[in-house]
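User: I'm preparing a small set of examples for a lab meeting where we compare how different chains pack in three dimensions. I only have the primary sequence for this one, and I'd like the structure in token form so I can line it up with the others. Please keep the answer compact; I'll paste it straight into my notes.
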Amino acid sequence: MSRPGRRTRTVLATAAVALALAACGEAAAPGAVDPSAADAPASGPPPGSAALDPCPSSRPASPARGDGLPDVRLPCLGSGPEVRMAGLLGAPRLVNVWASWCPPCRTELPWLQAVAADGVEVLGVDAEDRPDPAIGLLDALAVTFPSVSDPSNEFARALGIPAKPTTLFVSADGEVVHVQVGPFSSEADLRRQLARYLGVSAP
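Assistant: Understood. Below is the structure token output for the 203-residue chain.
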């Protein structure tokens, strides 16, 4: 897998110092999944997964960039293809690392849904979690934007993400231009950052 570029690592380190106390760290994960248990085969998609939008297609052979997303492949939480994270190109997007056991994640998921409903590309990464409670939470919150499943926390560890939620602002050519560690303060805060870092106006 690719390693995060120096700029991405610096942004993460700086943000972690300022904001990690507002988020759910690994040590605070009462529902975190034991990776050995998470590898057990599932009997099928959990109930409610059909309500999620299909996961986006990703480019299988495009080179991973040093300042982009790590080159890991994660299965879709609902329907759709496995996603090669480094191959998410073609449109600016938000990549949000969350978990069903994380209270701040529960607060901001509806805000992410609101901007997704306005046409912003949003992809969730459900980390250190199980599909059943994850999809149950999304269903309860009427969240339909797609998520991938990362029970072993591979994606976050590759980037050095210290806490959940964390949101990465990714340009159309795959550069991570901003990292928000910890929750947004409001939906308006999320929309301001979208305009500032990705040039996306979500009314």
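A couple of notes for your slides: Helices lie at 6-19, 35-38, 103-117, 131-140, 154-159, 187-198. The beta strands are 24-25, 73-74, 83-84, 93-98, 121-127, 147-150, 163-164, 166-170, 176-181.

User: Perfect, thanks.
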